[in-house]
Amino acid sequence: MTSGHDCDVLVIGGGIVGLSTAYALTRAVPGTRVTVLEKEHGPARHQTGRNSGVIHSGVYYRPGSLKARFAVRGAAEMVKFCEEYGVAHAVTGKLIVATERDELPRLHALVQRGRENGIPVRELGPAQIGEYEPYVRGLAAIHVGTTGVADYASVARHLAEASGADIRYGAEVVQIDRRAERGVAVRTAAGDVVRGRVLVNCAGLHCDRIARLAGDDPGMRIVPFRGEYFELARPELVRGLVYPVPDPAFPFLGVHLTRGIDKSVHVGPNAVPALAREGYDWSTVRPRELGATLAWPGSWRIARRHWRYGAGELRRSVSRDAFTAAVRRLLPAVTADDLVPAPAGVRAQAVLRDGTLVDDFLIREAPRTVHVLNAPSPAATASLPIGREVARRALAALGSQAAGCELRT
How far are the Cα atoms of 110, 138, 302, 361 from residue 62, in angstroms, in the given order? Predict the structure, then answer.
């Protein structure tokens, strides 16, 4: 490394994917100098620290996809990581429950998909559902034993410490100067300049903006969807994790019930458009960000294509009774009074120009740069394999001559 560089690899984003990348880099090639820039004053302040904490099994994802491969592998690795570092976690298993007859074919398809992904799945009838969850009702279900829960914010903190990287919090990136023959220089809002040989973009909700700052057209935009949660006032109604059968047309899994590591039960999330990248409630509106979302052609194509689904999600957002009705499909004993508002999260969903919701993880490369452009759920589960894959590409960029200007998958 020449004296003009502060580090070998400069990572933007201190969520679980960025920190896992730093962790993987220093383990793959000891001595690699890694700097992580995170605009918040600590790790895991957004998607990582605001989800339901589920260690996903990989049962939902298309065989051969990055999500399927990395989630199955990542679930086992995450349990081992938590055990090694003393992070709170539990392998509880979960039920996916069909409550309507038209859901039965989709449930059976999940059984086949689980088997193709190498995941043990047990099929259950109505009476057997009660063996796992006495208060849950359904026509049929499957039990997935490898699902669990973990404290992902704690995982991120341990990744940060174990990586040995130079992690700088309160460092919002506002300018990027990339030169194929020299490397990358990044300026922060505080006026600091950090120079690296290779840039890794793990900026989550802002990854498309960072790509454009680097001079790349990512071919997608992040459209933020807020997921609203409640906490169950009677947690004794749920023993583990209970999910509905998802609609394969959407990357969202539907309102589900999750007993966390603290024994509380979270209910949710729904999926409604957020009015800002970090719009955790309806009162948070950032006109410039909202305007950019509305200016993206894909946003309008989603709205036209899926307006019925969106209308239902909006109704559940503004009506406690409507949200309760969705929960009662799985858990009939729940009343509106049982649902106590809990902090929301925002999903960074990549959307293509034609309105396609990007379903798989999306990692693209440019000269001296690796962009992680779509890493919503199950990215926390899959963070260790994702980090290794991003690190592999970054290390390859360190050893190659950067040329060309076009992103490549």
Answer: 10, 25, 22, 12
